Amino acid sequence: MIAAGTQKALNIIRSYDGPPVRIMEVCGTHTHEIFRLGIRQVLPAQVTLISGPGCPVCVTPVEFIDEARWLALTKHVTICTFGDLIRVPGSEGSLANVRSQGGKVEVVYSPMDACEYAKANRQEDVVFLSVGFETTTPASCLAVKEAAAAGLTNFSLLTANKTMPQAYEVLKGSADVFLYPGHVDAVMGTKHGEELAREGVSGVVAGFTASELLTALAVILVKFPQGRPFFKNCYPRVVTEEGSLSGQALMREVMEPCDAEWRGLGVIPRSGQRLRDAYGAYDARRKYAVPALKGHVNPACRCGDVLQGKCTPSQCPVFGKGCTPEHPVGACMVSHEGACSAYYQYGGI
Ligand code: SF4
To answer: Is the CB of 340 under 6 A from ligand 1?
Structure first.
């Protein structure tokens, strides 16, 4: 039994007869949920969904994997990481290969887990691979504060944390409407989306259930034909205008903006987060004097184009052939939020 509101949204979507519209699912979780829930099948032909760069593992550049491998193999640190990152190819191999070369890599489920590992294993130097957007960065900040409070000297972060608003600036024009990630806006609030609408860039904040996604898409299809830029928060049970003030304060206290390289998008000014000087002892790059590494990606991989919405995963020549989840060539096939993995898993074209 479908709730009345959801049925209404479904009816609006199915009966859409307005102009063609390109909607970018900025967030990889949205990409997967839209596939998994079968929402693509109910969209009219003139509605195109484009997968964007909102998968933290996918946008992390190859040099980051190279840095982590260098730390494990040259400085003999224990790398603590989320499982996805282990199979992402670096220039000379992945972190999985590091294990077979004698390096130590531990899978953890949170930055605090890595901190606890460091507490329990003080004879090891532990580096946590801190990737993620505003949703996960506060947890890395908390782990650093906990390490400082506990007087740990064997724990640090290799940071590749990023913030989304600067990416939206780069992606302007890639789509007609952004489907904003609800979990990011839960932390950061809606001000940036409202500002972008004033600049002519439309967007809707969406949650992650079938009802929330259908409602957000229906709102887009009602508003887009009206021809005026719009912003709508369709996830009000979680997202507020100001966001999480405590999460924002924690990030401001521990980290500061820096220029950051995004796979496929290049360097985006002030789109990264690095540890402030006050927490410099927990910055693995400073602690171990990590050299600047120039990485190289497999030339067959089109992750960069996929992340910018310039091609679909299935338009990559090695999609499903040389590149599968079992044998990934690029990051977008590895991560459970990656567009290539979603297309492969759900048979997207
Ligand atoms: Fe890269 Fe594989 Fe996706 Fe092609 S299918 S873009 S090689 S991850």
So the answer is: yes
